Every structure is written in C-alpha cells, then in structure tokens.
Amino acid sequence: MLGASRAVLSGLVGVLLTAAAAGATPEELARGELLFHIGGCTNCHTAKDGPLLAGGDPLVTPFGTFYAPNITPDPETGIGRWTREDFLRAMRFGKAPDGSPYYPAFPYTSYARMSDADLGALEAYLRTVPPVRRPNRAHELSFPYNLRWGLYLWQWLFHDPAPFRPDPARSETWNRGAYLVEGPGHCGECHTPRTIWGALDRDRAYAGGRLGKETIPNITSDPVRGIGGWSRGDLRTFLLIGIKPDGDFVGGEMAKVVRNGTAKLPEADREAIVEYLLSLPPR
Q: 167 in a domain, yes or no?
C-alpha cells in the first residue's frame, strides 16, 4: 500500500509540475526544447533502453566511473523539488541544492556560458518530461578523486561561471555558432584534451580528446589533423545526417550527438555552428 501511495503521489506531483511548466510561454518552451536537444541531455541522462532522463549509462574516465543522475521531475529521485534558482546554480556554478560541488563530468563548465533566460527555458521544458521514480547510482571513483571536498578548490582554480559574451568584431551568425558550440552544445568538453587535473587544456582547444575508450577527433581547421579540408557543405551534411566527406557514417557517442542534437536544430543554427567551427584556429 505504501508503495502504491508513493506512486500515486509521484504521478500527482508530476502532473502539477507539468501544469506549472505550462505557465511558461510557448516560445519559452520551444526554446527550451531546442536547448534540450543541442545540450545532449538525452545522450548522458538516458540509459540504453531505459526511461527518458531517468539516469544514464556508466561514463568511464581516468578518474573513475560516473553515472549521470535522474533529471526527470520526480520529487523523490529526480529534480522535481528543485527551484529555478537551484537549477541555475547547478548549471552555472556546478553546485547542488545543498551547496555541494558537482564533478565536472557534468559539463556545467560549458553550460555556464548560457544566458539566464536560456537556462530558465531549459528548466521549464524539463518540467514537462514525464517523471520517473528511479534512484541514482553513486559514482565509483578512486582515491583521491572520491574526496568531493577537493572540488571546491578545483572550481576556484578552473571554473569561470561568466556567461558568453558576443564578439562585436564578428558576425551575428558567427556569434550564434560560438554560443551554441561553447555553451549548450559543450563541444569542447569532448573535443578538447584535459590536463592531469581534469580541466580543459585551452591551449589545445578542439584538438581532440578521449571519452572512455573512445578517441574524440580534432575539429579545428587544421587541414591534416582536423576538418580544415571539409567544405561548408561537408560539415552541414555531417551535422544533419552524420555522414563524413569520405562517405562513412559517424559512430559512437557522436552518432548520438547528431541524431539527438544537431539534426534537430533549425537550419540557421546548423549554419551558425558551421561558420564557427570552420573558423577555429588549426591545432
């Protein structure tokens, strides 16, 4: 009986949260959905064959194994009890509602580039997702990375919570692409190598990295190591259907990025990403 009562309560809260989210304007929810896609929320927070956003598959790193949590609006195991301020704090500052720091496996270091308005739109959209009661799984980290207090120092040293600032010397399209790539798209989190401290090596931005056992390619304009030999049409087609200039289709995690993210963007946003990526200095 207790389990059934909790299930009913969870469902009722989910309905109320969805109704609250419906108070957002259609334009805000539409923008939130777009940001949800480019942000890759599904890729990390949904396990293979699992319920949407109820927790992801293991992410194996040199520091240990991380498990993306349940971010459905379930009040017990998800983020249903979070306020908008809690959400903004997590996304911009990497802090949980209780003030504890998040590991940067959660790419808040990129999400911090987003505007408060866009973060609010994303939060409103997430409240429309069906709540799922599914407990989170603890990370499996080796010493000393399992000492969460060390993240306070890490954030002080390596995290800049300032939002994206447009470059007035660049075009509106370029700035839109830069915002999507550097912010919600968080492309650098995988395509940039990391230092021994787990921070992005900005001197080698977009020169390639690793995700678990997967090698992530160089996407700078270097004609040999990167995508400097790709045309705008090549990159546009890749972001739409995942096919490379040589006719091979992308696999691994990038296939998810295309399928769940860039393929769902408006054409103007893909064009903006193309313009920005092809402007990256060769490395």
A: no
Position 10 scores a pLDDT of 46
Helix, strand, coil proportions of the chain in percent (round to 5)?
Answer: 45, 10, 50
CA dist 112 → 96, 129, 185 (Å) = 14, 23, 12
Q: What is the pTM of this model?
A: 0.88
Query: Is the domain of 127 the same as that of 225?
Result: no
DSSP conformation letters of 211-235: ETTEEEPP-SS-TTTSSTT--HHHH
Q: Dump pLDDT digits (tens) for 182-234.
A: 999 999 999 999 998 889 999 999 999 887 778 899 999 999 999 999 999 99
> Cα(194)–Cα(210) distance, rounded to whole angstroms?
9
Helix 26-38 with 116-126: angle, nearest 10 deg: 90
Q: Which domain holds residue 193?
A: 172-277
CA distance 86 to 99: 9
User: Measured between alpha carbons, how far is 101 from 86 in angstroms, rounded to an integer?
Assistant: 13
Any domain includes 28: yes
- Treating both helix axes as pointing N-terminal to C-terminal, what angle do 232-241 and 267-277 enclose, rounded to 10 degrees? 130
Tell whether 234 and 151 lie within a shared domain.
no
Q: Model confidence at 12, in pLDDT bands (50, 70, 90)?
A: very low
Among 92, 123, 158, residue at a domain's last position:
158
> What's the Cα-to-Cα distance from 275 to each of 78, 95, 129, rounded to whole Å?
37, 33, 33
Q: Whole-number mean pLDDT of the chain?
A: 90
